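hey so i finaly got around to running the thing on phosphoglucomutase (alpha-D-glucose-1,6-bisphosphate-dependent) from Olea europaea subsp. europaea. pasting the sequence first so u can double check i didnt mess up the copy paste, my clipboard has been acting weird all day
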Amino acid sequence: MATFKVSSVETTPFDDQKPGTSGLRKKVKIFKQPKYFENFVQSTFNALGADKIEIISESWGILSVYTALRRSVPGFSQNLLSQLPPTLFSLSAIIIKMAAANGVSRIWVGQNGLLSTPAVSAVIRERVGPDGSKANGAFLLTASHIPGGQREDFGIKYNIENGGPAPEGITDKIFENTKTIKDTIGLTSLTGPEGQFDVDVFDSASDYVKLMNFEKSYPSICLAMFTNVVTTLGFLKMTLMNHACFSLLVFISEDFGGGHPDPNLTYAKELVACMGLGKTNTEQEPPEFGAAADGDADRNMPLHILIWFFVTPSDSVAIIAANSVQTIPYFSGCLKGVARSMPTSAALDVVATHLNLKVFEVPTGWKFFGNLMDAGMCSVCGEESFGIGSDHIREKDGIWAVLAWLSILAYKNKDNLREEKLVTVEDIVRQHWATYGRHYYTRYDYEVCMTCNLSYLLFLVIRTVLYFWKLHFKFKLCCFFKNVDAGGAKELMAHLVKLQSSLDVVNKHANDCW
Ligand SMILES: O=P(O)(O)OC[C@H]1O[C@H](O)[C@H](O)[C@@H](O)[C@@H]1O
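ok and heres what it spat out for the 3d tokens, dont ask me to read them lol
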């Protein structure tokens, strides 16, 4: 409990605070403008209505974690958390004070401010305070899969009471507020111990671990992976525990060590090398299984290499869906339905047809899966951007996806452990293709582009697609534009979709362009 004085401070609006698919992501230098961060937080409080909020937890996306299952004993530093950058703590303090001033009665902060995004979702859904209170939502501070640090990106997003990202109704309101905001409300003094405001620091991992119910839900692997869990290392402890079968390469720093934490073949190159790509005669036998996660642990990339093999995210979600009922007791013998984002390949749809399941196609963004899950219509879902999850929470979950894969591997090898050759990820994927057919697609990432160049590029893409259609090829193409204002990209897309209806018009625009 604490006493404090509330004061209102004049501010001027910024016109560029429109939240994208995953909240507000900008360069740190933009966030550093006076009042920029406070304006967004205040606009969020204004959009929610103070009486709606009681508890807020936070997540720092400052971890770039590559893990590999190996036979060696890990080198695991117990002091990792002491390296958390002070800037992030000061942002936490700003939110705490503004929350108090805006009428929030209690805040939950993960120990050291360190949670994964899936863990935040679990906390909102599962954590119950001593007086029976539950979280109304959470601020998450993370650059996610984007490069972080002083010269790179930072992000803030708000998740609602179902544990998932705020829906467009709320983010639109936040944006409207950011354009008209005149005051932010803060504290001039904060002393205790009287008054109606609590800050509880809690064990970052316990709610997630409880929810995952490892021993019951993942029985085939929990004994191998979760026996030696140490209980003091934030969310890392239950994912990268000190076990003889687990070896870690962990980088913790404000700027991801200068790296790009997107878990794909390009950016997880240390992992790819460690898994033996391109080596025919490795001195050391490569690990049997490796996985990469992004900065906030919601994206994943499982790798399995005996002969180098990579599973695309679209195949990955289809294979998990096809095998999950047999291999993961959490699903209690049935899936409620499955879903994928629009650019994700239709491999999942084929599985759904075979299993007589409903399949849904949703726009990009995890909030759309959340709606289906809240309605009890979806158990497993995924996006081609390395995000896969289930209805245990309302965020994608890199740890869950890796556990799902390990469960499948364990199941396929259960009668096979004494054999020379185990069933591999590659065997499972090839068997899947043989059963369900194979889907091909290409993903292109264009990063840090000017909007005008992107418009030009979109014209090229549309021309190419139309060309292929004309030749009666079946063609599926995904394009992703990062570091672009999501609202602008959406409008541009809508405009171009209209243009697609007429080849002549597209050609005219395209010709004007070059
Ligand atoms: O929450 P994040 O990991 O940052 O991902 C948020 C979104 O980022 C990009 O827009 C991807 O294309 C989406 O598929 C993803 O949902």
